[in-house]
Amino acid sequence: MPKQTLLEMTQHLLSSMDSDSVNSYAETIESEQVATVIKDAYFNLINNLDIPEHSGIIQLTALSNTSKPSHMQIPAGVRTITTVKYNTIASGETRLQYTDIVYRDPDVFLNSVLSRNSTDSNVQTVSITGGNLFIINDKKPEFYTSFDDEFLIFDSFDNGVDSTLQQSKFLVRGTKEPVFTMSDSFVPDLDANLFPLLLNEAKSLAFVEIKQSSNPKAEQYARRQWTRWANDRASVTAATHRKGPDYGRPSAGYRYNYEFKIYNKTYRYKKLY
């Protein structure tokens, strides 16, 4: 199936529901409802499939604030962060040296930084909401956490090189929340081979929410498509785990039931049925 616009999908669902045809998704109240259902189904889908196109390099925002020298802000629309590297080049050196920075759960992070002696000359007390952190100021960062899904906080920084952690020295990879535009010509950011699944998920949801009835056939097709992805023997591998936190819509966690490939693209799947 080729990719479809929001209008084409709306028309498809309206036809399945035996409703009036439209020339714009916003033409009638019902067509607007159907378009909203498609949007909801899309985000439900991408929250259960880790789609490669939604992953990429993320640029953290520097605070440039010496009272919070190891804070970096997470940009809006970031769902997960999987890799954090920092250029730990020393003063006077020219060779770039990117070092992996390890994610730690908030409690583990707190135990680590609060075990330091706040009176040591190389420890800076950093105030955060509800308390203080003891940040080392003479070494490269080694680990980080987030308490609020808005900021990443690192355990240390090297004041001999920079007075705060620098945006330009980070290399961060993660998953971004895609944009869904309510426009007739909008095409969701999804591979063509996943559009049948999107349509059947939307169709099943539309019958329940708008028609107040079920569509067993659409539900059956959706189950079959989920199962087909998960049971692709040629490409299924062991379950995988994320290395970093999830900043997006609520999910079952960072663990996926299956990882599989379709047309040389890797998808991770959390079983719904």
SSE blueprint and pairings:
Layout (H helix, E strand, L loop, with lengths): L5 H11 L12 H18 L8 E4 L2 E2 L8 E3 L4 E10 L10 E3 L1 E2 L2 H9 L8 E6 L2 E6 L6 E3 L5 E4 L15 E7 L18 H15 L6 H15 L27 E5 L2 E5 L4
Order of helices and strands: HHEEEEEEHEEEEEHHEE
By secondary-structure content and strand pairing, the structural class works out as alpha+beta
User: Strand order of the main beta sheet, please?
Assistant: 2-3-10-9-6
Q: What's the total number of strands?
A: 13
Shape: elongated
| Poorly predicted regions | 232-243, 249-267, 269-273
What percentage of amino acids are in beta strands? 15-25%
Would you tell me the overall average pLDDT?
A: 82
Structural account:
With 273 residues, the protein is of the alpha+beta class. It has two domains: 6-51 and 190-269, no CATH class; 55-176, no CATH class. It contains five helices and 13 strands. The strands form four sheets. Strands 2-3-10-9-6 form a five-stranded mixed beta sheet, with no helix packed on it. A hairpin with a 5-residue loop joins strand 9 and strand 10 (151-154). The two termini are 24 Å apart. The model is unreliable at 232-243, 249-267 and 269-273 (pLDDT under 50).
Give me a quick take on this structure.
The chain is of the alpha+beta class and 273 residues long. The chain has 5 helices and 13 strands.
